[in-house]
Amino acid sequence: xxxxxxxxxxxxxxxxxxxxxxxxxxxxxxxxxxxxxxxxxxxxxxxxxxxxxxxxxxxxxxxxxxxxxxxxxxxxxxxxxxxxxxxxxxxxxxxxxxxxxxx
Length: 103
Prior knowledge:
The protein has a 3-stranded antiparallel beta sheet. The protein has 3 helices and 3 strands. Helix 1 (10-25) crosses helix 3 (74-93). It has a single domain (10-88), classed as Orthogonal Bundle (Arc Repressor Mutant, subunit A), CATH 1.10.10. By secondary structure, the protein is α+β, with helices and mostly antiparallel strands.
């Protein structure tokens, strides 16, 4: 499945960036309180399509609201990198400070 970030909805982009942060900063554990029904549906569809791997944590290993896990595929990492670069470019263009050599 080839995913193009320009075809993703704003909510899907937000979800993918959230999943990326959980993969990087929390070893793939998902805080289910941070996801709504549409997020779970999208994650499930992406899992079925092979874009990400997503599932439930084995019941004996559930800790509070850490009930799901995610693992990003190389394709998901490619899209996340593209999205982060786009976000960085937008923020840089709209920065509200001058660099020291611009004053």
